[in-house]
Model the fold of this input.
Amino acid sequence: QLQASGGGLVQAGGSLRLSCVASGPTLSTYIMAWFRQSPGKERGFVASIGWIGSTTLYADSLKGRFTISRDNAKNTVYLQMNSLKPEDTAVYYCAARPAYESRYGSWGQGTQVTVSS
Done:
């Protein structure tokens, strides 16, 4: 089970750090990711991180502003978001999948991020 937190209201240019804690079996060998969904839009990929933490992927439009990281000892993945823009407003979801699978089968409940102009 994944529990996301850290969302909130922030002004444009500000920062937020999202957290996603996994309860139950350790997810240290899982690929962890963040997705987001804005009103009227499909859920889209934000970033992912390999189980070691050395392999990260980002949506092209977010490179340089967002940073994904993980602490396997705490079963937690983070998303540091800097220089936020109003278009970053969305519900952010964390997700997990075993490295040998292509689909994310475990999802958190989502945390709302609202960026005001």
